[in-house]
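Format notes (please read before filing issues)

Several people have asked whether sequences and structure tokens are stored in separate files. They are not. Every record keeps both together, in the order shown below: the sequence lines, then the token lines. Line labels are part of the format and must not be stripped during preprocessing.
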Amino acid sequence: TRTSPLNPAAASPGSRGALIRGRVLDAAKRPIAGASLRVVRIGDVVHTAMSDERGRYVIDELSAGSYSVEASKTGYVTVQYGQTRGAQPGLQVTVRAEETLNDIDVVLPRGSAVTGTITDERGEPLEGVTVRALQLVHGNGRTSALRVPGVKERLTDDRGRYRLFGMLPGSYLIVA
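Then the structure lines:
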């Protein structure tokens, strides 16, 4: 894994390999500073970077091929470039040797949360129950319930309460 400098200007235009540039933005198109970026190729992280105070990032010295660009920051949902819904994959970014791709912008939405209480048949709170969210996806005349990437299952507390967070807009099934 290779890490890019925080300053996007630090990547020289004559550097070897392909280069991807973009910004990390919130839903209102404002820059997000300090977001973490990961470039993934066939399941392996090959490069990491951070966005600067203007939300800009540079990923350089990439070999030719197709990559996923993923951004994350606390308080926001982790998404891939081109992803708009939780169960939907992002878009692959394909670069040729020494090519520069600009405007590979990633929009990080604020995460939504679901909270609730798990009780037994008498209304008593249940502690230590595993709760997870499954996103309902409709396609080919059927509905599927899929695991939600980035949303971890949680245990209920001593009051039977749980909180699942970091969810994109959509329909969910909450399973305990």
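For reference, the curators noted about this record: The CA atoms of residues 131 and 176 lie 4 Å apart. Confidence is low (pLDDT under 50) at residues 5-14.
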